[in-house]
Amino acid sequence: MFPLTISLAAKLAAEFGGQINISYSGGASAHNVLAILKTGIAPVTMVTDLLKPGGYARLQQMAERVDAQPWPDWLQQNIDVNALQNLAESCLNDPYYQKERREVDSIKIKKSLPLFDCYLAPCQEACPIHQDVAAYIRLVEEGRYLDALRVIIETNPLPHITGYICDHQCMYHCTRWDYDDPVYIREMKKVAAEQAWNEFLRKYGDKLKPSKFNGIQVAIIGAGPSGLSAAYFLARSGFEVTVVEKEQQAGGVVRNVIPDFRLPQHAIDRDVELIQRHGVRFRFGVTDVTVQDLITEGFKYIFVAIGAGKSRKLQLNPANGMVLDALEFLHKYKQKKPLQLGEKVAVIGGGNSAMDAARAARRIPGVREVSIIYRRTREFMPADREELEAALQDGVQIKELLLPVALENGILTCQKMALGEKGSDGRRQVRPIDGAFETFQIDALISAIGEQVDKQFLQKNNLQIKNKNSKTWVLETNLPNVFIGGDALRGPSTVVESIADGKRAAEIIISKEKQNGHQPLKIQSLLDRETWTKDLQQRKGLVVPFEATDHHREAARCLACDVVCDKCIEVCPNRANMALPLINKDMFKDHAQILHIDGLCNECGNCETFCPYQGKPYEDKITLFWSKEDFDNSRNEGFLLVDQNNSLTFLVRFKGVTGHVILDRKGKLARSDWQENTVDFKALLTVMQEIVRNHAYLLLNN
Ligand code: SF4
Ligand code: SF4
Ligand code: SF4
Known about the structure:
Number of strands: 25
Mean pLDDT: 93
Radius of gyration: 30 Å
Strand order of the largest sheet: 19-20-21-22-23-24-25
Shape: globular
Structural class: alpha/beta
CATH class of the largest domain: Alpha Beta
Strand content: 15-25%
Helix content: 25-40%
Distance between the termini: 43 Å
Bound molecules: iron/sulfur cluster
Largest sheet: 7 strands, mixed
Low-confidence stretches: none
Number of helices: 26
CATH architecture of the largest domain: 3-Layer(bba) Sandwich
């Protein structure tokens, strides 16, 4: 909105030679308020930004910024036309106003909004292994890297690897998207792991192995991320775990394919060491293992985690020329084998493997030009945005809407494509444009059109997957206690999804045996919650854009949304939501509960827009009504004071039932139509009592 409105202001000012008073509203924010005022425009009204999370608190930050200026021409009569025109022009190229800057439509997670205890960190929920992001970021902020690493490895056995290459779903759900930029969560993990590793080994390295194993032997076939993850969680719980791997080292695709410029070797080595130190044994170079061999050897459980390492074959007709498979190419590149690709290389595909292959090809002596050829447009590429950016920065060219069909005499022929309707995955489908082709002269072609599961192992071992339609990615096979999971079941996925699959496999085995020797880390005891909460309250509303170089500053940008949320309060134009402080640790997780005040709400829906859940705070939170008519017209769970002659009688809708609750004037329960000792009713009663005792001004009965 700002570029549009400021351009209009610039045109008006020019038309009147600057002799016009302009009162401005239209996209004014902390980012631009100074620049607007400096043109001589005043007053400035902030609306949109005010109704975003932290908007009211942000007024102070803006006022301080304005106040810090000398303002010689504060009340100048005329508009500085040149300054205004410059502002209107410069904002067109300012990344702050570009649509692409906001990479996400919504940070919402797939969960419905609970009646009570709703504070939640969407980043944690979006993470496949639900890492306690806010806690470890807080510890990084405090410079307590060792504790941060301990928090991370509570749920994540590959802290270094994920610190470098996780696809960070957490960041796509970060609350700070509604402020400025998401917290660079992955970097915080990397910082913690890198800074703390040596100290961690010194302090805990020899104490990680369980003092006593439970005697139950588990074999894991495949030392990729899901196999390593299962091994870690099982060993930590006291199981005797052996990982059988066909390569000479652990890590799978991460070790053998992902190039060093994206993931350094030491990150892989350290994570494997972490798992080894938990007592996991490895057998490397085993290419012919069978499930039956392992059963005969005495393994009670087997987890098949062989990954999805078979490349899909690119269909070219004819295919006369140098055609390489991306996985094989990257494997050779990683082993530093001599590769000759000529001068011009085409990489086919749009995923991370294509980006890796293209960037690796750029680094091969003799290669002058690398192009990625993709059948859709770049916005629909499955590759991470930052991998695409890195490829572009490396000088890789992107050629869109092209489908390779033939390679002959060094000429790659591509069918031109057009975007069609959206498919079930949300991406636009493509269709060929009749008779339209484009040709390129190339010396080598690298195919990176995806990987699939190699079914040979399953066939050789007569393994069949039961319940194929299940939505989980770890399943028992036709052989009892033999499980398959991770990429071997679902096809290629991300590292963190593989970790989640491995963890799931471990949980199934642990629950079957009802044995869990792991003592969970008491994360909350590491943090001074009171100081943390105070800090957060001061930070809310402040715009602090991302800055790559200072990780303390970056960590301090986290708003610890599971400690304090209150966004529905901040963004409500009518103050129709409030936080009732209810520090009752036995009853509630959160330090405050959200109360919706029906009589103040005009159902504008702004709270719904910013609430991280799928729900609507104005419908889903416990509601205080002010009139019988409003109560009857609503389906919200809540209460209305209907009589206050002697005691206080409330009409209540709760758990789908309408009835009465009677409290004495001090809030003590006299009678209720609900079972009084249920946890849910006690929560409701606590809220009502808090209002009667400390917020009686809210109670109206009409
Ligand atoms: S602000 Fe912090 S806690 Fe909230 S979503 Fe972002 S990283 Fe997570
Ligand atoms: S819907 Fe109601 S509670 Fe939500 S922001 Fe609008 S007025 Fe406030
Ligand atoms: S926006 Fe409000 S209702 Fe939604 S999670 Fe935050 S505090 Fe709860």
